Amino acid sequence: MLAYIIQRAAQSVLVLLVVGLVAFAMFRFVGDPVDAMLGQERTQADIARLTAELGLDKPFPVQYWRFLEQAVQGNFGLSYRQGRPVSEILVERLPATLELAFVSGVLALAGGIALGIFTAIWRRGISANVIMTLSLIGVSLPTFLIGILLIYLFSVELGWLPSFGRGEVTRIGWWTTGFLTESGLKALILPAITLGLFQMTLIMRLVRTEMLEVLRMEYIRFARARGIREKSINFRHALKNTLVPVITITGLQLGAIIAFAIITETVFQWPGVGLLFINAIQFVDIPVMAAYLMLISVMFVGINLIVDMLYFAIDPRLRADRTAGGH
């Protein structure tokens, strides 16, 4: 087990280094931050001075190594746009994104697993067929279009929920939360549904497929022949084996929720790190863009590492294979 953890951790570090290199190299072609920071009255002396101050006159390997050294210490430099430490800006914006991702993830997991089990057990019922038909909408429509439709229905036509912003928030130390205010909770509903709907439909269809596959296996037939209650067969025998292969895909979907929050935050003007990234692109704010991609990469890799550990702990076949391989 320890060797497996070390191996996966080493792979995760390698992935982060590659992502950092690709991101840092890619941002060299999105524009010149010096042009964006200086006005029309700039001179060559101003350009040379600012280029030296930002360290852009150094060779690319030197810039990348300096970026890695500072990133390990949690220092991503100064924002070209705001002139403030990037880490300070991320701390301000991160709670909004994490709360949105958390609510969306709970919605996707709870709704996807529950609906997947329901449509598998009662697959011939009218309700199951209606749910499967509606799930095609969640899979087919792009996220931004779902958000626009929800805004039109619940904000413009019905006037029940706000169409943008985070509402009133409460500060707890450095953390800001909208869970403790009515306007904050209302503002969270539409973005959470928009972000979690696509992932929920994928998880639902995956759980349904795996559940149907398990219900066709021989040991389920033997359990029915022994007279075991159908409820016990579905939830004690079939569900347990259904969730084992679902864990890996679910982990990827949770990582995707954080990565794809950028679209939802743009549609709803949600003040998270995704909207910060979009604004940084417009201003060629390279430190913010690099810090955002590294932050999302760390979250994505961390979630997948945890999922791998859970998968290894739950599935005894993996432990048996590792033991046999070691001997």
Count of discrete structural domains: 2
Q: From the helix content, strand content and strand pairing, which structural class follows?
A: mainly alpha
Q: Average pLDDT value?
A: 80
At the third CATH level, what is the topology name of the largest domain? MetI-like fold
- Rounded to the nearest angstrom, the distance between the terminal CA atoms is 14 Å
Largest sheet: 2 strands, antiparallel
**Unreliable residue runs:** none
CATH architecture of the largest domain: Orthogonal Bundle
- Which shape, going by the Cα principal axes? globular
By DSSP, the count of extended strands is 2
Portion in helices: over 70%
What is the CATH class of the largest domain?
A: Mainly Alpha
Q: What spatial order of strands do you see in the largest sheet? A: 1-2
Following the backbone from N to C, one meets helices and strands in this order, namely HHHHHHHEEHHHHHH
CATH superfamily of the largest domain: MetI-like
List the main descriptive attributes of the protein structure presented here.
two-stranded antiparallel sheet, 2 domains, globular, 2 strands, mainly alpha, 13 helices
